[in-house]
Design goal:
Elements (H helix, E strand, L loop, with lengths): L11 H6 L4 E4 L2 E4 L6 H21 L5 E5 L3 E4 L2 E3 L3 E5 L13 E5 L5 H15 L3 E6 L4 E8 L2 E4 L5 E5 L2 E4 L2 H7 L4
Parallel strand pairs: 7-8
Antiparallel strand pairs: 1-2, 3-6, 4-5, 6-7, 8-9, 9-10, 11-12
């Protein structure tokens, strides 16, 4: 008799009951522990802070806000928690229920494959306009822009058309390179 492989699928209702930090992607749980390392947290905080400042200084981006590690409920089987995201438009719920405009994921050894493949595909399919990967160990940055429904890598983007007239002017690769992550 052959062994039957059973992989349970979970929903947002299950996710709400779990202790600790998790993401749920296509019904499959992904543990987010241990907590991110020092370089990861520092890069995350610095990027979010700089984006917040630039959005406020623009005086035309009142409709766009930056959030860190906020749950995005994609559907009943998928809830993710991007490191940094820019959300444009009306948003009053405690959790995001529509695609953000820009997502930054800070890579770590334990999340790199998921961020590069699973989340890349998820964010692309959900219409996230910009997806940025930051490697705190090498201080490398990869920028993807959604063009005709597919991500195209363009690491030279320094002006991100977010929403309406709102544009984020930010050379993210240069900023990341200048961070003191040692």
């Amino acid at each position: 008799m052959k062994a039957f492989n059973y992989v349970p699928l979970y929903t947002y209702s299950d996710y709400q009951q779990w202790e600790g930090n998790w993401e749920l992607i296509n019904g499959h749980p992904h543990a987010m522990s241990p907590s991110p390392l020092r370089k990861h947290q520092f890069a995350n905080t610095e990027l979010a802070g700089e984006i917040r400042i630039r959005l406020k200084e623009s005086n035309i981006c009142d409709d766009c806000k930056v959030y860190q590690e906020l749950d995005w409920i994609v559907n009943n089987e998928t809830t993710v928690r991007p490191d940094v995201m820019i959300v444009c438009g009306e948003f009053k719920d405690d959790f995001l229920k529509f695609p953000p405009t820009l997502i930054i994921e800070i890579l770590s050894k334990s999340t790199s494959l998921k961020d590069r493949h699973v989340k890349h595909q998820l964010y692309e399919s959900q219409g996230v306009k910009f997806y940025i990967l930051v490697n705190p160990d090498t201080q490398a940055t990869e920028i993807f822009e959604l063009v005709n429904g597919e991500y195209v890598q363009n690491n030279t983007i320094s002006r991100f058309a977010l929403h309406g007239n709102c544009e984020l002017a930010f050379d993210i690769p240069a900023f990341v390179q200048a961070l003191k992550l040692d």
